[in-house]
Amino acid sequence: MFVMRRHVKKMEALSVSVACRVTILIAAILLPVLLTSCGKKGQDGGTAAGEEKTAHENEDDFLDKDAKPDERKYLVAAKPFFIAIANQQYAEAYTLLSSYAKVRMSLNQFTPAEERAEFTRNESDPLTNVTAEQFADLMKYVEAAHGTPRAPKMLHVFSTDADVLNRRSAEQFGAVDSMFAIGAMPDSIPGDIRRASLRGQIHTELSPEEVEKAANAQGISVDELKKDENFDPYFNLKVVLVEEDGQLKVGYFEFLPPSMMD
Percent of the chain, pLDDT > 70? Predict the structure, then answer.
Protein backbone atom coordinates (compact mmCIF):
# COMPACT_ATOMS: atom_id res chain seq x y z
CA MET A 1 0.00 0.00 0.00
CA PHE A 2 2.84 2.31 0.97
CA VAL A 3 4.62 1.43 -2.26
CA MET A 4 1.49 2.29 -4.22
CA ARG A 5 1.20 5.67 -2.49
CA ARG A 6 4.86 6.43 -3.22
CA HIS A 7 4.29 5.44 -6.83
CA VAL A 8 1.21 7.68 -7.11
CA LYS A 9 3.01 10.62 -5.51
CA LYS A 10 5.96 10.05 -7.80
CA MET A 11 3.64 10.00 -10.81
CA GLU A 12 1.87 13.19 -9.61
CA ALA A 13 5.21 14.91 -9.10
CA LEU A 14 6.32 13.77 -12.52
CA SER A 15 3.06 15.00 -14.04
CA VAL A 16 3.44 18.40 -12.37
CA SER A 17 7.06 18.56 -13.48
CA VAL A 18 6.13 17.69 -17.05
CA ALA A 19 3.23 20.15 -17.00
CA CYS A 20 5.52 22.89 -15.74
CA ARG A 21 8.09 22.11 -18.39
CA VAL A 22 5.43 22.08 -21.10
CA THR A 23 4.03 25.38 -19.81
CA ILE A 24 7.50 26.91 -19.75
CA LEU A 25 8.21 25.55 -23.22
CA ILE A 26 4.92 26.95 -24.58
CA ALA A 27 5.61 30.28 -22.91
CA ALA A 28 9.11 30.31 -24.38
CA ILE A 29 7.68 29.70 -27.83
CA LEU A 30 4.73 32.10 -27.58
CA LEU A 31 6.40 34.98 -25.73
CA PRO A 32 8.44 36.24 -28.71
CA VAL A 33 5.36 35.84 -30.91
CA LEU A 34 3.19 37.75 -28.45
CA LEU A 35 5.80 40.47 -28.08
CA THR A 36 6.17 40.68 -31.84
CA SER A 37 2.40 40.81 -32.25
CA CYS A 38 2.15 43.58 -29.69
CA GLY A 39 4.87 45.44 -31.49
CA LYS A 40 3.11 45.00 -34.81
CA LYS A 41 -0.17 46.09 -33.33
CA GLY A 42 1.41 49.26 -32.03
CA GLN A 43 3.14 49.87 -35.34
CA ASP A 44 0.03 49.13 -37.38
CA GLY A 45 -2.05 51.34 -35.12
CA GLY A 46 0.46 54.13 -35.55
CA THR A 47 0.51 53.69 -39.32
CA ALA A 48 -3.27 53.67 -39.55
CA ALA A 49 -3.48 56.81 -37.46
CA GLY A 50 -0.80 58.39 -39.61
CA GLU A 51 -2.65 57.45 -42.77
CA GLU A 52 -5.88 58.83 -41.37
CA LYS A 53 -4.13 62.03 -40.37
CA THR A 54 -2.60 62.32 -43.82
CA ALA A 55 -6.02 61.74 -45.37
CA HIS A 56 -7.47 64.58 -43.30
CA GLU A 57 -4.57 66.82 -44.25
CA ASN A 58 -5.03 65.94 -47.92
CA GLU A 59 -8.64 67.10 -47.77
CA ASP A 60 -7.28 70.66 -47.71
CA ASP A 61 -5.05 70.18 -50.74
CA PHE A 62 -7.52 71.96 -53.01
CA LEU A 63 -7.63 75.06 -50.80
CA ASP A 64 -5.56 78.07 -51.83
CA LYS A 65 -2.16 77.76 -50.14
CA ASP A 66 -1.44 81.46 -50.71
CA ALA A 67 -4.59 82.70 -48.98
CA LYS A 68 -4.12 85.58 -46.56
CA PRO A 69 -4.60 84.77 -42.85
CA ASP A 70 -7.89 86.70 -42.71
CA GLU A 71 -9.19 84.78 -45.76
CA ARG A 72 -8.62 81.34 -44.24
CA LYS A 73 -11.94 81.36 -42.37
CA TYR A 74 -13.82 81.81 -45.64
CA LEU A 75 -12.06 78.84 -47.24
CA VAL A 76 -12.89 76.71 -44.21
CA ALA A 77 -16.53 77.84 -44.30
CA ALA A 78 -16.97 77.09 -48.02
CA LYS A 79 -15.02 73.82 -47.99
CA PRO A 80 -17.88 71.53 -46.78
CA PHE A 81 -20.17 72.75 -49.57
CA PHE A 82 -17.53 72.05 -52.22
CA ILE A 83 -16.81 68.59 -50.81
CA ALA A 84 -20.52 67.73 -50.61
CA ILE A 85 -21.04 68.74 -54.25
CA ALA A 86 -17.91 66.85 -55.35
CA ASN A 87 -19.18 63.72 -53.55
CA GLN A 88 -22.66 64.10 -55.07
CA GLN A 89 -24.08 64.49 -51.57
CA TYR A 90 -26.62 67.05 -52.65
CA ALA A 91 -28.84 66.68 -49.58
CA GLU A 92 -25.83 67.52 -47.41
CA ALA A 93 -24.93 70.47 -49.65
CA TYR A 94 -28.49 71.76 -49.31
CA THR A 95 -28.19 71.91 -45.51
CA LEU A 96 -25.20 74.25 -45.91
CA LEU A 97 -27.24 76.85 -47.79
CA SER A 98 -28.53 79.95 -46.04
CA SER A 99 -32.24 80.73 -45.95
CA TYR A 100 -31.59 83.40 -48.61
CA ALA A 101 -30.16 80.79 -50.98
CA LYS A 102 -33.09 78.43 -50.44
CA VAL A 103 -35.87 80.97 -50.78
CA ARG A 104 -34.91 81.86 -54.36
CA MET A 105 -33.02 79.97 -57.06
CA SER A 106 -32.76 80.67 -60.77
CA LEU A 107 -32.17 78.06 -63.43
CA ASN A 108 -29.29 80.30 -64.55
CA GLN A 109 -27.42 79.26 -61.40
CA PHE A 110 -27.27 75.66 -62.65
CA THR A 111 -27.17 76.05 -66.43
CA PRO A 112 -26.38 79.58 -67.65
CA ALA A 113 -28.68 80.72 -70.46
CA GLU A 114 -26.97 81.24 -73.81
CA GLU A 115 -29.35 83.97 -74.94
CA ARG A 116 -29.99 87.22 -73.09
CA ALA A 117 -33.76 86.84 -73.46
CA GLU A 118 -33.66 83.37 -71.90
CA PHE A 119 -31.44 84.63 -69.09
CA THR A 120 -33.88 87.45 -68.31
CA ARG A 121 -36.82 85.06 -68.43
CA ASN A 122 -35.14 82.69 -65.96
CA GLU A 123 -34.33 85.53 -63.59
CA SER A 124 -37.86 86.91 -63.71
CA ASP A 125 -39.38 83.49 -63.00
CA PRO A 126 -37.19 81.90 -60.28
CA LEU A 127 -37.96 78.88 -58.15
CA THR A 128 -39.01 79.82 -54.62
CA ASN A 129 -38.68 78.00 -51.30
CA VAL A 130 -36.62 75.28 -52.96
CA THR A 131 -36.58 71.91 -51.16
CA ALA A 132 -33.68 69.47 -50.87
CA GLU A 133 -35.33 67.20 -53.44
CA GLN A 134 -35.71 70.07 -55.91
CA PHE A 135 -32.10 71.10 -55.38
CA ALA A 136 -30.97 67.54 -56.19
CA ASP A 137 -33.10 67.58 -59.34
CA LEU A 138 -31.57 70.91 -60.41
CA MET A 139 -28.09 69.42 -59.99
CA LYS A 140 -28.97 67.06 -62.86
CA TYR A 141 -28.61 70.06 -65.18
CA VAL A 142 -25.03 70.51 -63.96
CA GLU A 143 -24.24 66.82 -64.44
CA ALA A 144 -25.78 66.79 -67.92
CA ALA A 145 -23.68 69.76 -68.98
CA HIS A 146 -20.34 68.92 -67.34
CA GLY A 147 -20.35 65.31 -66.15
CA THR A 148 -20.66 63.69 -62.73
CA PRO A 149 -18.74 65.48 -59.94
CA ARG A 150 -15.94 63.36 -58.51
CA ALA A 151 -13.43 65.52 -56.58
CA PRO A 152 -12.64 69.12 -55.61
CA LYS A 153 -9.93 70.65 -57.79
CA MET A 154 -9.26 74.08 -56.30
CA LEU A 155 -10.83 76.86 -54.24
CA HIS A 156 -9.73 80.43 -53.58
CA VAL A 157 -11.14 83.65 -52.17
CA PHE A 158 -11.92 86.06 -54.99
CA SER A 159 -12.98 89.15 -53.04
CA THR A 160 -13.94 90.35 -49.58
CA ASP A 161 -14.42 93.96 -50.73
CA ALA A 162 -17.88 95.11 -49.61
CA ASP A 163 -18.10 97.50 -52.58
CA VAL A 164 -17.37 94.70 -55.05
CA LEU A 165 -19.83 92.38 -53.29
CA ASN A 166 -22.53 95.05 -53.63
CA ARG A 167 -21.84 96.30 -57.20
CA ARG A 168 -20.87 99.77 -56.04
CA SER A 169 -17.11 99.79 -56.62
CA ALA A 170 -15.83 103.06 -58.11
CA GLU A 171 -12.69 101.38 -59.45
CA GLN A 172 -12.07 101.33 -63.20
CA PHE A 173 -12.86 97.62 -63.46
CA GLY A 174 -15.19 97.51 -60.48
CA ALA A 175 -18.16 96.33 -62.55
CA VAL A 176 -16.10 93.47 -63.98
CA ASP A 177 -14.88 92.49 -60.52
CA SER A 178 -18.48 92.42 -59.28
CA MET A 179 -19.53 90.27 -62.22
CA PHE A 180 -16.86 87.69 -61.41
CA ALA A 181 -17.51 87.95 -57.67
CA ILE A 182 -21.29 87.70 -57.39
CA GLY A 183 -22.64 87.15 -60.90
CA ALA A 184 -26.41 87.53 -60.94
CA MET A 185 -26.79 87.54 -57.16
CA PRO A 186 -30.18 89.18 -56.48
CA ASP A 187 -30.46 92.45 -54.60
CA SER A 188 -32.94 90.77 -52.27
CA ILE A 189 -29.95 89.34 -50.37
CA PRO A 190 -28.95 92.11 -47.93
CA GLY A 191 -25.65 93.79 -48.73
CA ASP A 192 -24.58 94.14 -45.11
CA ILE A 193 -24.40 90.37 -44.57
CA ARG A 194 -22.25 89.60 -47.63
CA ARG A 195 -18.79 88.59 -46.46
CA ALA A 196 -16.78 86.97 -49.27
CA SER A 197 -16.85 85.67 -52.82
CA LEU A 198 -15.01 82.44 -53.59
CA ARG A 199 -14.37 80.69 -56.88
CA GLY A 200 -13.35 77.08 -57.33
CA GLN A 201 -13.39 74.08 -59.63
CA ILE A 202 -14.61 70.49 -59.31
CA HIS A 203 -13.33 67.54 -61.34
CA THR A 204 -15.98 65.56 -63.21
CA GLU A 205 -16.32 62.11 -64.76
CA LEU A 206 -17.74 61.98 -68.28
CA SER A 207 -19.86 59.12 -69.56
CA PRO A 208 -18.50 57.09 -72.53
CA GLU A 209 -20.94 58.94 -74.78
CA GLU A 210 -19.75 62.32 -73.51
CA VAL A 211 -16.09 61.32 -73.94
CA GLU A 212 -16.78 60.26 -77.53
CA LYS A 213 -18.60 63.54 -78.17
CA ALA A 214 -15.65 65.51 -76.77
CA ALA A 215 -13.21 63.52 -78.92
CA ASN A 216 -15.27 64.11 -82.06
CA ALA A 217 -15.40 67.83 -81.30
CA GLN A 218 -11.59 67.89 -81.35
CA GLY A 219 -11.33 65.61 -84.37
CA ILE A 220 -9.37 62.92 -82.54
CA SER A 221 -10.03 59.39 -81.31
CA VAL A 222 -11.24 58.55 -77.81
CA ASP A 223 -7.91 56.88 -77.00
CA GLU A 224 -6.00 59.97 -78.10
CA LEU A 225 -8.24 62.18 -75.98
CA LYS A 226 -7.74 60.02 -72.88
CA LYS A 227 -3.96 60.12 -73.36
CA ASP A 228 -4.01 63.91 -73.59
CA GLU A 229 -2.57 65.23 -70.31
CA ASN A 230 -4.70 68.35 -70.71
CA PHE A 231 -7.92 66.35 -70.77
CA ASP A 232 -9.36 67.15 -67.36
CA PRO A 233 -13.15 67.67 -67.31
CA TYR A 234 -14.37 70.08 -64.63
CA PHE A 235 -16.78 72.89 -63.93
CA ASN A 236 -16.45 76.18 -62.08
CA LEU A 237 -18.36 76.91 -58.90
CA LYS A 238 -18.83 80.42 -57.55
CA VAL A 239 -20.15 80.96 -54.02
CA VAL A 240 -20.89 84.06 -51.98
CA LEU A 241 -20.76 83.62 -48.23
CA VAL A 242 -23.15 85.54 -46.02
CA GLU A 243 -23.33 85.81 -42.26
CA GLU A 244 -26.61 84.46 -40.92
CA ASP A 245 -27.33 83.88 -37.23
CA GLY A 246 -23.66 84.43 -36.47
CA GLN A 247 -22.49 81.76 -38.94
CA LEU A 248 -20.96 81.88 -42.41
CA LYS A 249 -23.23 80.14 -44.92
CA VAL A 250 -23.57 79.89 -48.68
CA GLY A 251 -25.84 82.79 -49.58
CA TYR A 252 -25.56 82.45 -53.34
CA PHE A 253 -23.89 80.15 -55.87
CA GLU A 254 -23.44 79.62 -59.60
CA PHE A 255 -22.26 76.56 -61.53
CA LEU A 256 -20.32 77.70 -64.58
CA PRO A 257 -18.57 76.03 -67.54
CA PRO A 258 -14.78 76.01 -67.97
CA SER A 259 -13.39 79.28 -69.27
CA MET A 260 -10.24 80.49 -71.03
CA MET A 261 -9.72 82.72 -67.99
CA ASP A 262 -9.54 79.81 -65.54
Answer: 78
